Amino acid sequence: MTTKRGAKATIRDVAAAAEVSVAAVSAALNGKGSLKAETRERIQREAERLGYRPSRVAQAFREGRIGAIALVLPLMDSVDEQQRLIGLDYYMAIAAGSASAAFAAGYSLTLTPPLSSREQWRMVRADGVVLCDPVADDERLTVLDEIGVPVVTIDRDPTREPMPPYAAGDNYANMRLLLDHLDDEGARRIALLSADSSWAWTQDGDRAYAEWCAEHGHEPLRVPVPLGKGDNDALEATVELLQRAAPPDAVIASAEQYTAGVVNACRKLGRRIPDDVMVAVGVDSRSALQNDPPLTAIDLHPHQQGEAAVRLLLDRLAHDAARPDPVIVPSTLHRRASTHRG
Amino acid sequence: MTTKRGAKATIRDVAAAAEVSVAAVSAALNGKGSLKAETRERIQREAERLGYRPSRVAQAFREGRIGAIALVLPLMDSVDEQQRLIGLDYYMAIAAGSASAAFAAGYSLTLTPPLSSREQWRMVRADGVVLCDPVADDERLTVLDEIGVPVVTIDRDPTREPMPPYAAGDNYANMRLLLDHLDDEGARRIALLSADSSWAWTQDGDRAYAEWCAEHGHEPLRVPVPLGKGDNDALEATVELLQRAAPPDAVIASAEQYTAGVVNACRKLGRRIPDDVMVAVGVDSRSALQNDPPLTAIDLHPHQQGEAAVRLLLDRLAHDAARPDPVIVPSTLHRRASTHRG
DNA sequence: CTGAAAGCGCTTACAG
DNA sequence: CTGAAAGCGCTTACAG
């Protein structure tokens, strides 16, 4: 009645060893049913002796759920080594928040690497997916829909109908918050580095900027900067801006990726922050906080966004009901030295 | 014979609809067996019509494996919001590398949030665990061993016997590489910021530093700096170092976390890098690369370490055989402007 | 208080 | 070429 070496003991092995039924073993180990204390202890002893561990797959199978949620981050989509180094604080915090919310509900969080083919997506073992920063007509959402996997996005889908549930910051309001703050601090020519992308947060920010400028009679100074390709683009764009005949007296870096480029451009040209030019960032990060001087930035509370997205997803899984409302996570403006002239 | 609304179609529903056996459905959908083309097509049509998706859990159950590997990162162990912001490039790259190696082998990668109790660890649904930076007598390894989950570590376990298989950089050699490089560039008093921890990489680095100093007749200038508690500690330690009567002419920041602190300390005291003091970092990051001037750093190729660790784990899962040898991933010294006086 | 059985959804031999 | 059955390891009603 001993198990074979190497083969893992099953509930049957324990039942045989303790000379009871498998049901009794199950009850004893899960503290259910009503077993005589003596029997329960004997079963536990035998289980211990055989090194029995209930099979997690079998349990999952019985529960009818995988017990995992997949998280898809844009940064995992890059293939070359250089790019992979780019671990943005924002996404890391989303991952941490998602993981803890998932785990609190008895789910684990799965990181999904770059997937191209439909085949690969079918391999994903998860009860649902949290997808960050969908683009317009995002193919991945189409595939997931075909496969029948529920999806929640972080940042809303710009085009899809019906729009999947989502969690997001209030990107429109945040941009206006930055602009008002810079205005209060005396900035009169505020430039914006922003990506030409179909992401909702970019478009919301651009719209807020355009409207704010129109309302305040300011000339818009928006410079498109590609995202992702390293940070030279942001540096060059900022250098170009600052060397214009009428340079800006404040620069907003809308993306975390631009942070170093903007700062280095100022340093390169000998422009002091904030005296010659104020700098503010649309997404807070360690770089912003640790910069000398520390940079004013919007904290999008990505940890909370991750938590919120996972909870939305779990609701969908549980109730299979009506599409829930989006969750807008309030953001915080951290006023730091980069936008305040002593 | 139609499925209930809401309830997902099972293989039985498809079999009934197509008027064949479940075995035929399985064969048709997996392209196995020898079905008449006409039958196969009819089955596929019905499956399509019913929106049938094979249950991933059931498949997993049959395969006898969960199909997931858990990754445990030290940074996920912090609870307060402030700490969570700390997404180190090093760990992010490990996660990306692990995920792609896992996925290539048909496994997914699960992120495990901070777990304290044995109970919580039992909830982890994974066929194996990759644990980063084990400390001496790491409780987590003890628990995982009890639960019977195979483990591979990144960076070796400092004390455990038998030592779990691991992937790591050559931390001893790397420290000497940095020291030799600084020596070549003319540094004569090289200080080291290093943590008082039981981590193997810290201890290896400290040992290399002590031996190198002894061999070269240099006075050791090692300053212990706590890890994790934000970056003020590194800044203060560096300020203190640079204000000594005999200040160092080079500083090695052994951890990625020290990067900003060291740079800001130099800036605060008006010491120019590299002219007044050279700076080198033991772990490469975006901060090091984007600093002005860019900082010389050791690239530990964390992406490859992640891949290697996952492959070690998969080997163990597959063969259940002898303990494999550790994998030492070669590191690269990136010589940058911070250690070269024009 | 305990046992025997059914069943979760799939795939893989094995019969016909 | 196709069907009926066994079985992966567990838990949950249901009998005794």
Automatic annotation (TrEMBL), chains A, B:
Q: Does the keyword Lipid metabolism apply?
A: no
Keyword entries, A-Z: DNA-binding, Transcription, Transcription regulation
What region holds the HTH lacI-type domain?
9-63
Q: Which Pfam families match?
A: LacI, Peripla_BP_3
Q: Which domain of life is it from?
A: Bacteria
The reply on keyword Transcription regulation is yes
Q: Which GO terms describe its molecular function?
A: DNA binding
Annotated PANTHER family: LACI-RELATED TRANSCRIPTIONAL REPRESSOR, LACTOSE OPERON REPRESSOR
Query: What is the name attached to this protein's record?
Result: LacI family DNA-binding transcriptional regulator
Organism equals Nocardioides ginsengisoli
